[in-house]
Amino acid sequence: MELRDVFYGIEDFFVEVLFLPFDALRALELDSWWLANIVSWVFVIIAFAAFLYWMKQLKIFNENNEEDRSQTSHSYLG
Fold first, then answer.
1. 49: part of which helix (H) or strand (E)?
2. Domain-located, residue 71
3. Alpha-carbon span 9 to 21, nearest angstrom
4. Is 18 left (phi over 0), alpha (psi -120 to 50) or beta?
């Protein structure tokens, strides 16, 4: 077994196994424009929901005054 075979094995694993969902999405886009856009909008909605959750958590921590807001919270700042 040569070192070249190891790299070809890694390439084969990525192309044939890990990139399979991306190939399915690409095929979906070619089949139906509407279905491809629905998938995109689902991803946007998930990202927006995660953003709203993160902002809600930041607001909770901000209201509890759990963060050190002094200007010298780090020793290297002076």
1. helix 33-63
2. no
3. 19
4. alpha
DSSP reduced 3-state for 29: helix
72 occurs within a structural domain: no
Measure the CA–CA gap between 1 and 47, rounded to whole angstroms: 45
pTM to 2 decimals?
0.56
Find where tokens 């759990």 sit: 66
Give the domain range for residue 12.
1-31
Q: Give the three-class secondary structure for 31.
A: helix
- Nearest one of 48, 51, 29, 27 to 39, comparing CA atoms: 29
- Per-residue pLDDT tens digits for 10-45: 999 999 999 888 888 777 776 777 877 887 899 999
Contact partners, residue 28, CB within 8 Å, separation at least 6: 35, 36, 39
